[in-house]
Amino acid sequence: MNSAAQALYEEMQVSLGKLVPDFELYYKAEIAIEINRLKKERNAVVLGHNYMEPVLFHTIPDFRGDSLDLSRKAATTDKDIIIFCGVKFMAETAKILSPHKTVLMPAERAGCSLAESITAADVRALKRKYPGVPVVTYVNTYADVKAESDICCTSGNAVAVVESLNCDTVIFLPDQYLAANVAQQTGKHIIFPSIGGATPDNTLLDVQMIGWHGRCEVHDKFTVEDIRSIRAQFPDVVVVTHPECSPEVVAASDYSGSTNAMIKFVQESKAPHYLVLTECSMGDNIAAANPSKDLLRLCMVHCPHMNMITMENVRDSLLYTKTVIDVPEEIRVRAFSAVDRMIKIG
Question: Is the pLDDT of residue 265 over 60?
């Protein structure tokens, strides 16, 4: 091991030694040094989503955070190549905002159960069924779905986006739980219709939000019983959830917010114990960044798609320029309009 890798290994031992086996730190330190060298040679920027495994997350990204924030930061750089350590819809968003840059996703296939729950054809069918109703689409969707939308939203600004439309009725896609949580916060009655069949004349008389049956396979696993069991063992625990969890789980928690908001909440709070109900690598990353905080290690739910991103395939992505993410320009322009409308709201 060269001196640079040795120094990085010792640094990782301090921050990650309680979370990651020592042999893994030793092995991956050399890969991280190689990736950082390749970044400079290829004028590349590496983006690390909050759900990346700890060694990757804490060593090679130039920017760390949630998906839209990362894409916006990458767009401001002078780098020729964007390596997105995340799933496909995230890399597509980076391409939407940086059309003249080469965007690479390290894994050949890193999808998302939520993004794959809806297609552009589904959105067009909903618009035919509910003509004139504006479509709000969560950023956790593919580019062609964004292109069929009026405006996008994040989990953090979804309520503000819906309220900005000043409409009696909105279509909110595709996350069933996020939609239900937003409906509760905005006082709207929500339905989850099928897209087949005729629309009765009075369908929208008492409906203010039209949702979709899409779910994140990670957040769908958390239950109210999980929280009750944890509180029985740790009565003073503070439970932090993502709004992609069910409304019942969100209601049973102490705080719910986007990935960045959850991180900030833990950093700024002074509770005796925390339980973060989201992808478990993110819990590890929060623990590593907050060694004085007691984060309960009771979460065992990992995203199989995020776990496809490894240090090895990040290195290979830089070496061999793979996997290239392209978005057809006609789709990109329309998707950019939906994203840009959201950004202007804040």
Answer: yes
Q: Tell me if 3-110+306-320 shares its fold with 219-289.
A: yes
Inter-residue contact 129 to 195 (CB < 8 Å): yes
**Is 272 exposed, middle or buried (CB count within 10 Å of its CB: 0-12, 13-18, 19+)?**
exposed
String of DSSP letters for 42-96: HTEEEEEETTS-HHHHTTS-SEEE-HHHHHHHHHTS--SEEEEES-HHHHHHHHH
CA 207 to chain centre: 29
Residue whose entry in the numeric block shows the structure tokens 């409308």: 341
Domain over 115-215 is classified CATH 3.40.50.10800: yes
Sorted by sequence, the CB contacts under 8 Å of residue 78 that are 6+ apart come out as 43
pLDDT of residue 266: 94
**CA nearest to 283, candidates 264, 265, 263:** 263
What is the architecture of the domain spanning 3-110+306-320?
3-Layer(aba) Sandwich (3.40)
- CATH classification code of 219-289: 3.40.50.10800
Question: What is the rounded CA–CA span in Å between residue 123 and residue 174?
Answer: 9
Please tell me the pTM assigned to this model: 0.92
303-320 residue pLDDT tens = 999 999 999 999 999 999
Q: What are phi and psi of 44, to 5 degrees?
A: -115, 155
Residue carrying structure tokens 């804040």: 346
Predicted confidence (pLDDT) per residue in 66-114, tens digit: 999 999 999 999 999 999 999 999 999 999 999 999 999 999 889 999 9
Pick the closest to residue 90 from 76, 106, 148, 150 (CA basis): 106
Strand pairing report for 135-138 and 81-85 = unpaired
Per-domain residue ranges of the chain: 3-110+306-320, 115-215, 219-289
